[in-house]
Specification:
40% of the residues lie in helices and 17% in strands. The protein is of the alpha/beta class. It folds into 2 domains: 94 residues, Aspartate Aminotransferase, domain 1 (Alpha-Beta Complex), CATH 3.90.1150.10; 235 residues, Type I PLP-dependent aspartate aminotransferase-like (Major domain) (Aspartate Aminotransferase, domain 2). Strands 2-8-7-6-5-3-4 form a 7-stranded mixed beta sheet, sandwiched between helices. A 4-stranded antiparallel beta sheet has the order 9-10-13-12, with helices on one face. The longest helix is centred in the last third of the chain and has 21 residues.
Length: 356
């Protein structure tokens, strides 16, 4: 019998949620107009409007990078700049796609807890050279919620960033690849984390939370939304059979199962972090607020994990564990037990033997 493999590399290594697979089967019946001119896409837009408590424009896309790039292209000009945190996904993990699609320069700022802070943003924008033709001009702000280190912006923090950005003439884009995990952790409504704070456009992620290659660009300003279909076509992002993505997103938002899945993933991570954090020599390097854990482990523990049926990512001296909504509880126990054994730490409730 093949030993089970427990995968903590990311939340997109898991399967699709059953109800979303059912939505795909339903969408597969009969014919439908292509390129988003179909009833499923119209229903998806109505569902997003209800979920965000105001009229929005939602456009289906198949990847988070594409969603980020085309949304930012609507906010920034080729001679412009996009401000973001230095650890932001658009700055580290998108291979220059935002610059390619927009022509704009990314300006990466530091910030404690892997977040941008309003006073620091204000200071940076005050030195940006607004109106100087020798300088790129600030056009957009990117806020990654949650951050790529799993930390969360509270609504008041987002509102403060949006206030500063708008005061300096910038539009605000939110990268919400794990938006559901933020909603589940903070107990906020989608509106409370976006347009009520001043966010102008959102990259809404669902793939990491049970969908099959289903994301959306959600735009709160109709004037900004008008150019996005053209930018999507120019960039090769228009889906011929859009109904298969739209049907999933329509079903995704139809009830609270998307939030329940994200909550389970967050809870799995909290249990894993508690188990690892109790072991000697293990350092949790970022607050565990969603389903992601970043840690430093002794070399012996890393070697033991590599030798076992466990999959995870190494980031220099740090390791990353990401829990899925369908994470196996026995996998969490196996990971903690492997590290514990490598460090020679006794199991909970056991008294170590002393030499007689």
């Amino acid at each position: 019998m093949t030993a089970p493999v427990y995968d903590f590399r990311s939340d997109n290594v898991g399967g699709a949620a059953p109800e979303l697979l059912e939505a795909l089967v339903t969408a597969n019946a009969g014919t439908a107009s292509p390129y988003g001119d179909d009833d499923h896409t119209r229903a998806m837009n109505a569902r997003f409007t209800a979920a965000f408590e105001r009229p929005v424009t939602a456009l289906p896309v198949s990847s988070g990078t594409g969603s980020n790039a085309v949304a930012l292209a609507a906010l920034a000009n080729p001679y412009g700049s996009i401000y973001c945190h230095e650890s932001a996904h658009i700055n580290v993990y998108e291979c220059g796609a935002p610059e390619f699609y927009t022509g704009a320069k990314l300006v990466a700022l530091p910030g404690r807890d892997y977040k941008l802070h309003a006073d620091e943003l204000d200071a940076a924008l005050s030195l940006a050279g607004r109106g100087n033709p020798t300088r790129v001009q600030p056009f957009a702000l990117n806020v990654t919620q949650p951050t790529d280190y799993g930390t969360l912006y509270r609504p008041a923090e987002i509102a403060a960033l949006c206030e500063i950005a708008h005061a300096h003439g910038l539009k605000v884009h939110m990268d919400g690849a794990r938006f559901a995990n933020a909603i589940a952790a903070l107990g906020c409504s989608p509106a409370d984390l976006t347009w009520r704070c001043g966010v102008d456009a959102l990259s809404f992620g669902a793939t990491k939370n049970g969908a099959m290659n289903a994301e959306a660009v959600v735009v709160f300003d109709p004037a900004l939304a008008a150019s996005i279909p053209f930018r999507m076509k120019r960039g090769g992002l228009v889906l011929s059979k859009a109904r298969y993505v739209s049907a999933q997103l329509d079903r995704y938002l139809a009830d609270d199962r998307w939030i329940e899945r994200a909550r389970r993933a967050n809870e799995h991570a909290a249990r894993l972090a508690a188990g690892l954090g109790a072991l000697p020599g293990v350092t949790i390097v970022a607050p565990v607020e969603i389903n992601m854990i970043f840690a430093r482990l002794p070399d012996a523990a890393v070697a033991a994990l590599d030798a076992g049926p466990l999959r995870y990512y190494k980031l220099g001296r740090e390791v990353r564990f990401v829990c899925r909504h369908d994470q196996e509880p026995e996998g969490i126990a196996a990971l903690v037990d492997t590290v514990r054994a490598a460090l020679g730490s006794p199991a909970p409730g056991r008294v170590p033997l002393r030499p007689g």
